[in-house]
């Protein structure tokens, strides 16, 4: 660029300075000579090597301009079409089975022991020797009272189960007892079976007969009452359906003398009933075991309770006096 500028200056110099001089000399210098001079000068200009000057110091950095405003957000484009599902991959080869962590001999030993234990379950229990004692699985009072229009039952929560008759005003109570003797193998021979009850109290009671009989219908220990043996089924005979086959009867005397109303107070004595034939029938499977019914002979009286109470299972304060069935097995 600088070379062009110099050349232009030289040409202008020759045209405006040298040309008038040539013309003024009359006839002047031929044009060719001028052109040659220009060419020579141009060649000299081309041969000139421009040497750049020293670089100036860097100027200070300019102030940063303010940030421009953000543009408006563009609208969201439409969702692309979902591609087709690729084919299912080929199932890999099954791995080699791992080695068992248990010793095979140990497994065989355990299986043998298990088979032995299972065989014991099928064996009949060995008959016990001598006397065997059974406590009740349930005991329950059932009674009715026409005078107060009641037909109820309880499990002896007051501490006693008992019998009573007061027929002239429509009042009576019986007691049910249940014993589970299934631990004795069927067919086992027994020499005796006795029910023991501990009398704790008598109320306006005179000497009377007390019966223990075999119940012939099932009953619900939680819901049996005088008229109903379960919540939905009635007794065939109100007060508990029983049979006198094999029943045991004993006489329980009064402990107090005087008139009817004076014969009331604590009793505190054991009584027993022999129920051998009933229990032997249960063991042999001759009839179902629906338990026992305790009741007393209905005797004529005017207004007395004629009642005797025995310690109940589960509620009497001292359970050493609870009812008990003691069976003596045949030693042969």
Give start-end ranges of low-pLDDT stretches. 2-29
**Average pLDDT value?**
78
Determine Rg (CA atoms, Å). 64 Å
Q: Strand tally, please?
A: 12
Order of helices and strands: HHHEEEEEEEEEHEEE
Major beta-sheet overview: 12 strands, antiparallel
Kindly state the percentage of residues in helix. Answer: 10-25%
How much of the polypeptide forms β-strand, as a percent range? 25-35%
Q: Termini separation (Å)?
A: 146 Å
Secondary structure tally, helices: 4
Decide which structural class fits the backbone.
alpha+beta
C-alpha geometry: elongated
Features:
12-stranded antiparallel sheet; 27% strand; disordered N terminus; alpha+beta; 332 residues
Provide a quick synopsis of the model.
With 332 residues, the chain is α+β, with helices and mostly antiparallel strands. The protein has helices spanning 2-24, 31-47, 104-122, 276-284, and strands at 131-134, 138-145, 150-154, 160-166, 171-178, 190-203, 208-215, 242-252, 265-274, 292-296, 307-311, 324-329.
Please, could you describe this protein's structure?
- The protein is of the alpha+beta class.
- The chain has a domain at about 130-330.
- It is about 20% helix and about 25% strand.
- It is built from 4 helices and 12 strands.
- Helix 1 packs antiparallel against helix 2.
- The chain is elongated and about 185 Å long.
């Amino acid at each position: 660029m600088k070379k062009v500028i110099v050349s232009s200056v030289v040409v202008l110099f020759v045209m405006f300075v040298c040309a008038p001089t040539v013309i003024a000399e009359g006839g002047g210098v031929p044009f060719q000579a001028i052109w040659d001079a220009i060419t020579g000068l141009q060649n000299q200009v081309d041969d000139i090597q421009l040497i750049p000057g020293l670089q100036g110091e860097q100027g200070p950095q300019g102030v940063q301009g303010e940030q421009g405003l953000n543009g408006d957000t563009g609208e969201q484009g439409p969702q692309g079409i979902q591609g087709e599902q690729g084919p299912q991959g080929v199932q890999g080869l099954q791995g080699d089975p791992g080695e068992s962590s248990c010793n095979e001999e140990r497994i065989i030993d355990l299986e043998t022991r298990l088979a032995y234990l299972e065989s014991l379950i099928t064996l009949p229990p060995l008959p016990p020797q001598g006397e065997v004692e059974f406590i009740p699985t349930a005991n329950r009072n059932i009674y009715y009272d026409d005078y107060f229009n009641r037909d109820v039952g309880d499990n002896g929560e007051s501490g006693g189960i008992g019998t009573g008759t007061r027929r002239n005003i429509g009042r009576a109570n019986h007691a049910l007892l249940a014993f589970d003797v299934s631990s004795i193998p069927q067919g086992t021979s027994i020499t005796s079976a006795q029910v023991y009850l501990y009398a704790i109290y008598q109320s306006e009671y005179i000497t009377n007969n007390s019966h223990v009989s075999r119940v012939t219908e099932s009953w619900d220990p939680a819901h049996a009452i005088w008229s109903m043996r379960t919540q939905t089924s009635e007794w065939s005979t109100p007060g508990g359906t029983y049979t006198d086959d094999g029943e045991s009867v004993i006489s329980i005397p009064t402990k107090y003398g005087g008139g009817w109303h004076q014969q009331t107070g604590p009793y505190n004595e054991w009584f027993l009933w022999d129920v051998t034939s009933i229990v032997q029938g249960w063991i042999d499977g001759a009839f179902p075991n629906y338990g026992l019914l305790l009741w007393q002979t209905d005797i004529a009286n005017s207004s007395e309770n004629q009642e005797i109470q025995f310690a109940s299972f589960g509620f009497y304060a001292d359970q050493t006096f609870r009812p008990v069935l003691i069976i003596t097995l045949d030693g042969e």
